[in-house]
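Attaching the record inline, Q. Sequence:
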Amino acid sequence: MTLSVAPDAAQAAPTTTSATARLDRLNQQADQLVEQYLQSNLALERTRSNLAAVQRDTQSAQRSYDDLRSRIAAQAASACAVNCWNQGEIYSFHSGVAMVAMGDGSVRGLKSTISLRTLLLLATRADTQGVPDID
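Structure, as predicted:
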């Protein structure tokens, strides 16, 4: 007795096998995409967390800077700038004025009543702020 296989059944087996293999490959690709998505979300959350920490640190540093600047401004308002003390400061034995060399090579007299803020503006290199009239 001979067994014969129907032509449709013989062709169906390879098709089912190749469809199953293709489905397995698609499932593997889907798993890989899900893993990449999860890793991307984890990296994004870390970046957001780092950004928040940087923003907190920046705000804290800005508050510290503002506090220091206001304390210096308060001290500078009452500080003496010229002819206060002859120890490494701008000082002259001329009454009420000290002669200083400017960056352009000119020599000018600074009054002893000049504010410390104005003096600091004069002494700051490449500052974009204007300097009040010192004459």
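The chain has two helices and two strands. The chain has two domains: 8-78, 79-128.

More tomorrow.
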